[in-house]
Amino acid sequence: MIIAVDAMGGDRAPHVTVEGAYLAVEELEVTIALVGDKNIIEPLLEEHKFRKKRGSIVVVHAPEVISMSESPSVALRKKKNSSISVALEMVKRGEADAALSAGNSGAMMAFSMFVMKRLAGVERPAIATVMPNINGATVLLDAGANVDCKPIHLVQFGIMGSAYASTILGIKFPRVGLLSNGEEEEKGTDLTREAHDIFKRTPLNYVGYIEGRDIFKGTVDVVVCDGFVGNIVLKVAEGVAYAITNILKSEVNQSIFSKLGFAIAMPALRALKKKIDYEEYGGAPLLGVDGISIICHGSSSSYAIKNAIRYAKECVEKRLNTILKVEMEKYSKGLAEEGQRGNEQ
């Protein structure tokens, strides 16, 4: 299996991407194609004294880099030879099985749709992120790809999220909930109320409206919302996890008894950190494009990059993209009729 990694993308690239690739081939049976400026990447591989073990690393030259602040639309027009574009083109041509980047997420989404194209029946691809709950994990989508959505888009997110939860998390007949400001049917916005009505007419295991606290209670397996709301939820969750970690550190240093209690509780605290740390998941897939495209956090460490590669490998092995195609084809006729009805109204 070959995973194309945008070596130049991320706040600390290319050092962490090279190191992450190194960690991945030490642990996984996979070949990593580091895409970027070979004049920068190859010396870094020498620094790590790269040894071929279970997998291998190859360098694919891409002379252009898309900065984190660059406009995706401008990059799409002017940077066809960027590391993001070349990595995705490799997947499109069958030279790689998946692509991932910790770089400009807007550019990664734009190039994924331009290069890979959308799956049949998908109007808006969505970012699916896995969030911890007290029983396991909850899939949240969209986590930031689409700020303005139509009701039919939310329903498509629900279909893709359900297929994802079933395929990757192994959840049979996943429970799907629509994020709102209350469980009552009269709550929500025009968008959520219209989407709610369509959801009820699908064969999905739709349970209705859910509130923000239900994400972490494990009330449902898939939470659907537009990208504006989803991205806020994601960033708030990251902030809470960061705050809890640092508050604990501060409290531990208050007294010798706190330090003793901390030492005793260390195994449980390590397990908690592992569960709430986004780096354990590595990245989030852009569902709805015709290929495996993984978007990583801009501040990803080498450990996060390694886990993103592991995660991309799992998506390929479990044939996620093929399953999404089948599911969207199954629902596409009914959704097209719903979309037409919504346009007429």
Detail the topology: elements first, then pairings.
Elements: E1 2-6, H1 15-27, E2 31-36, H2 38-47, E3 56-61, H3 72-78, H4 83-92, E4 98-101, H5 105-116, E5 126-127, E6 129-132, E7 137-141, H6 151-168, E8 175-179, H7 190-199, E9 205-210, H8 214-217, E10 222-224, H9 227-252, H10 256-276, E11 283-287, E12 292-296, H11 302-317, H12 320-344
Parallel strand pairs: 1-2, 1-4, 2-3, 4-12, 7-10, 8-9, 8-10
Antiparallel strand pairs: 5-11, 6-7, 11-12
Structural write-up:
The protein is 50% helix and 16% strand. It is α/β, with parallel strands linked by helices. The strands form two sheets. It has a seven-stranded mixed β-sheet, sandwiched between helices. The protein has helices spanning 15-27, 38-47, 72-78, 83-92, 105-116, 151-168, 190-199, 214-217, 227-252, 256-276, 302-317, 320-344; strands at 2-6, 31-36, 56-61, 98-101, 126-127, 129-132, 137-141, 175-179, 205-210, 222-224, 283-287, 292-296. Helix 9 (227-252) packs antiparallel against helix 10 (256-276).
